[in-house]
Design brief:
two-stranded antiparallel ribbon, 2 strands, mainly alpha, Arp2/3 complex 21 kDa subunit ARPC3
Amino acid sequence: MSRQDNIFRPVLLWWVRARPRLRLLVGAAIVAVIGLAGLTPNVMFDIALSWPYAALIAAAGWGRSGLGFGPIIALILFGVAQDITSDAALGAHALVNLLAFGFSALVSQTFDSQRSQSMAYGLPILSIGLGVFLVWLLASISGGHAERVTPMLAVFLSTVFVHMIAAPIFDLGIRRSDSTGAAI
């Protein structure tokens, strides 16, 4: 057993025993921190960095546990906040978050009945891809012309990268056989 295992074991054991509502609150706090950090200038060596859409990561992760009112309310609030900070049409990002959340719940319920590790990363990537595509589509429609694809591809890649690191945080720990799936 390595020293690193000894350091993170209590946190891991605490997380495994955490209730879904606490997991939702921790995930929402992380989305808020990532979102607030995204408001700072993101330039390194005169290159603008692509900031991930943390709400899409949360939508994809929370959707694996099924539909629930807690995640829906959080995703609407994050979407409206993102609309305000990015000068988007009010409700656009909330709509994208909800569609990605619903899509994640649908594909997880259909294809991920055993909650396998390969599906834990593959299906959310589809949900994130759908969300980024919808953001591009809404931006193109509201702008009256097709927006550039390259910035959206960069956002997709940065969002998937952060998802690969943070995916376990957004697992609410609810199994499909639980009767409390929609209680949070």
